[in-house]
User: Which sequence fits this backbone?
């Protein structure tokens, strides 16, 4: 398995727009109902092109096929895509005052459980720390929580994300302080 990680480009958006629903419908199905998944697609589970423009979103490729994606952010937004953004949430945050955010990890179902999420986490954590952040937080899905826990993130809050179809999606806010691990 030869996986290459590279920064995402705006021309990757159509492939990401196909990958995300496929990943969510298959890999989140044992955690969320079909109605919750469909309600979250396009808002909670979606492409955030600002991450791509910031060059903080990465693609995992094998033989030029996108098999995973994920990123981090130096902005206030914790989750969601282009349709779910506000100008205030798009503001840059001060790494001395606020945690970076791990954002929007999705893996092609045929490539699940092969270490792609772990490779992406290492890339994102290293980039966030290099940008001066000492802490990182994640709004994790129930399916993603075990991966992040393995990386030393601790759950600080469980909550419900309101969906446009009047349902909610259970989420978990997780946190890691890098000064504690050194």
Assistant:
């Amino acid at each position: 398995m030869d996986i290459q990680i590279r920064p995402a480009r705006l021309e990757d958006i159509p492939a990401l727009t196909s990958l995300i629903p496929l990943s969510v419908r298959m890999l989140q199905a044992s955690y969320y109902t079909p109605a919750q998944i469909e309600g979250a697609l396009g808002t909670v589970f979606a492409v955030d092109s600002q991450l791509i423009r910031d060059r903080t979103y990465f693609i995992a490729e094998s033989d030029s096929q996108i098999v995973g994606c994920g990123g981090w952010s130096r902005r206030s937004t914790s989750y969601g895509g282009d349709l779910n953004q506000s100008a205030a949430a798009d503001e840059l945050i001060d790494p001395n005052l606020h945690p970076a955010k791990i954002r929007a990890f999705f893996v092609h179902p045929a490539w699940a459980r092969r270490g792609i999420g772990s490779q992406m986490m290492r890339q994102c954590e290293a980039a966030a720390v290099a940008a001066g952040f000492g802490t990182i937080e994640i709004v994790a899905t129930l399916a993603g929580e075990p991966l992040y826990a393995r990386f030393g993130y601790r759950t600080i809050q469980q909550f419900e994300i309101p969906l446009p179809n009047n349902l909610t999606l259970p989420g978990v806010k997780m946190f890691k302080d890098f000064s504690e691990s050194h």
In short: The helical segments are 13-27, 34-40, 49-53, 116-130, 145-150.
